[in-house]
Amino acid sequence: MLPELGQFALVLALLLAALQAFYGIAGPAMGRERWMAAVIPAVAGQAVMVATAVACLVASFVGNDFSVSYVAENSNSALPLFYRVAALWGAHEGSLLLWIFLLAAWTVAVAIGATRLPPRFAARVLGVLGVVSFGFLLFTLATSNPFLRLDPPAPDGRDLNPILQDPGLAVHPPILYTGYVGFAVAFAFACAAMLEGRLDQQWARWTRPWTTVAWSFLTCGIALGSFWAYYELGWGGFWFWDPVENASFMPWLVGTALVHSLAVTDKRGLFKSWTLLLAILAFSLSMLGTFLVRSGVLVSVHSFAADPRRGIFILAFLIVMIGGALVLYAWRAPALKSTAGFELGARESFLLFNNVLLVIAAGTVFAGTLAPLISDALGLGTLSVGPPYFNPTFMISMLPLLALLSVGIHASWKRGRLTDSQRALFFTLVAAAVVGAGLAFGWYARGRLLTFVGATLGVWIILSSLVDPIDRWRRGLSLSRAVLGMTVAHLGIALAVIALTTVQSFTVERDVALAPGATASVAGYEFRFEGVQSVEGPNYDAIGGTFMVTRHGEAVAVLRPQKRQYWVQHQVTSETAITMHHGNNLLIALGEDLKAGGRWSVRIQVRPLVSLVWFAAFIMALGGALAASDRRYRAAAGALAPARTASAAEGAR
Amino acid sequence: MTPRRRRLVLVLGIVAGVSIAGALALSAFRQNVTFFFDPTEVAAGRVPAGERFRLGGMVTKGSLTREPGSLEVHFMVTDFSHDVPVSYTGVLPDLFREGAGVVAHGRLRTDGTFVADEVLAKHDEKYMPPEVARSLKRRHGESRTEGAPPASGS
């Protein structure tokens, strides 16, 4: 009964989404007040229906209803309850349902926030969100229905993929998706502005907090995914430039550009059409990410099972959505002219460089991610693009971006003189170079030029970011949350740069064969292999190894990596053992029994500061949250500013 | 400078920056792309000498041998028409097993052995019954595309 109820709820949600889209877009266009008044009830009804569908699927999982095909394929009666709930988004169909659920949640949040917006504009925003929701609901019902029944029911489920049986599954996908889907809000605001044919600074003030919150979630989601891959997949490493990772990283890069471009539109009323374009692009890349991951067109280490029909549907949907938005853009953007100018060297120009460099970075990642697909389609051979391409090309745009960051935050709006802050910039750069040289050639001693450059840039951003806040604090001036948030986010970037530089320069990885009692020395640590014993888990058998880790004869930790075999799928997974010591991250993964006197192959990795990479991402997200909570956004949600707007992103292209 | 010229300078600067980035990316791309070949193509001598590439296929059943007590392993990769011997030193991935799909990165030695520096076995999300896996395996062998799903982890 429950699965049918869930499916019925989804169908109702689809109808309500259609109503929401129609009334939201046609209402303001035809000037029908009563149509516009119907939008909010449609939003609420749709949210209730989607929540009902989710609840039905969760109940099927919890109740081990193996007559539901999706449950039978992704759960098992021996699976712990916790994973039976999280298994909801363990594969394609449920992930889509999660996406729709989060979109409904965002839409409700927007509807609540929209009570302070002009009704016509609010209706349009919700209408565009309705279009997005309609598309995804249709996709789910047409190609990926999670409520399909099996006849006869399966006696037991095929179990959740063992790799996903980890607490990471409970947090990473929902948070990442919240970020992805959040860009739909920025997209809807952009489309609504174009439908209105009006875009002013007030618009940017409405859009900014939503975009920043979505960006913060995406940042967290990517970091969580990276951390999960690091300890779960057992290869070590936290970023592989895998298509699925790139799919989340491209919207992040463009989203970062959007956050900065919105700042200019808000403060100076510039970059208008550019901001619109970025909002369209960020959400398009979010949807493309879904397309890439879900359709299975790209070979990835964690891609879902391939189904070309789904790919074609998403592709068609992408074309309609992106194409529609771009047509709207081509039609309306030229009307949005701006009159203000700025000098070369003003803050606007630095933010412009920021945008250009971030978009270039996203472009190089895009090219590298899609090249295998294009080459294959054109019959030019199957090729793969890996870190040797991504690392240098990404650095080409990132190094200037980081160098300009320090200068840019000291530049003033409109005027291009840096005289007041030249001294501060100079001194912080010198200090950063000294610290950078110390880190690169003193502390770790084996540094290369890039280590020095990376460390210096990171330290420079920290020091120069702190100049203004410290100055204001000493003069007893208050610091707005927006400025504080910006500073915190920039400190996060700086920490990430320092951490990435250190990890890339000083990681030691070794695969060794160890007999019980033997010791391997890696990066100054001794790893003594004590042997293996068998361990039994709730739904798996495991072999656990014990390693005593010492440094200069002092005990550091006891590490117990496992090799698990799950009962249902008989799949073997490696559970790595990880410990922290003085900023170094020590990772051990068991390889296999070499069948020679109890010897095992063992992977040992020592990564300095790798934890700081993830921590830095959370600092960035925290900065975003702080900035989004600034009082001016709440105060700003009043009436529309005087209406003669229309401006073009002068100099923005 | 007039606003117009200033804008021109800005635009030219950005165009120059984008072109430089594009050129560098293209050259990085040319140098760092690794092509995929299957055993039949390797046997036909289609691989340029000394080039790093990816070899993909199935691990031939019963071909895995290990140097006693060391990390050096040897196995054959097959597409059911031709076989290529592979040698690798290191820890094999969890999903590596005989009869399952594998992709190895490395170079061809003059004696025809593929020396791998990285071995990948795909993580598959779905359980597949053995007969489905077998048919996929057959397809994989025939279609010679890497995109065909390999045998699942079962």
Radius of gyration of chain A: 26 Å
Radius of gyration of chain B: 22 Å
Biggest interface found? A-B, 71 and 47 residues
| Quaternary organisation | heterodimer
- What is the terminal separation of chain A in angstroms? 56 Å
Describe the sheet with the most strands of chain B.
5 strands, mixed, barrel
Structural class of chain A: alpha+beta
The biggest sheet of chain A amounts to:
6 strands, antiparallel
Main sheet: strand order of chain B: 2-4-5-7-6
At the fourth CATH level, what is the homologous superfamily of the largest domain in chain B?
Answer: Nucleic acid-binding proteins
- Number of domain modules of chain B: 2
Intertermini distance of chain B: 71 Å
Task: Please state roughly what percent of the residues of chain A sit in beta strands, choosing from under 5%, 5-15%, 15-25%, 25-35%, 35-45% or over 45%.
Answer: 5-15%
- Annotation, overall tally of beta strands of chain B: 7
Q: Beta-sheet strand percentage of chain B?
A: 25-35%
Percent helix range of chain B = 25-40%
Task: Give the overall shape of chain B.
Answer: elongated
Average predicted local confidence, pLDDT of chain B: 73
- Count of β-strands of chain A: 11
Question: Can you put this structure into words, describing what you see?
Answer:
The complex is a heterodimer of chains A (653) and B (154). With 653 residues, chain A is of the alpha+beta class. Among the domains of chain A are: 160 residues, no CATH class; 104 residues, no CATH class. Chain A has 19 helices and eleven strands. In chain A, the strands form two sheets. In chain A, strands 3, 4, 5, 6, 7 and 8 form a six-stranded antiparallel β-sheet that branches. A four-stranded antiparallel β-sheet of chain A has the order 2-11-10-9. In chain A, α3 runs antiparallel to α6. The longest helix of chain A has 32 residues. The radius of gyration of chain A is 26 Å and the shape is flat. The C terminus of chain A is likely disordered. Chain B is 32% helix and 28% strand. By secondary structure, chain B is of the alpha+beta class. Chain B folds into two domains: 33 residues; 109 residues, OB fold (Dihydrolipoamide Acetyltransferase, E2P) (Beta Barrel), CATH 2.40.50. In chain B, strands 2-4-5-7-6 form a five-stranded mixed β-barrel. In chain B, 36% of the residues are buried. The longest helix of chain B is centred in the N-terminal third of the chain and has 30 residues. Chains A and B meet through α13, β1, α14, β2 and β8 of A and α1 and β1 of B. β1 of chain A pairs antiparallel with β1 of chain B, so a sheet runs across the interface.
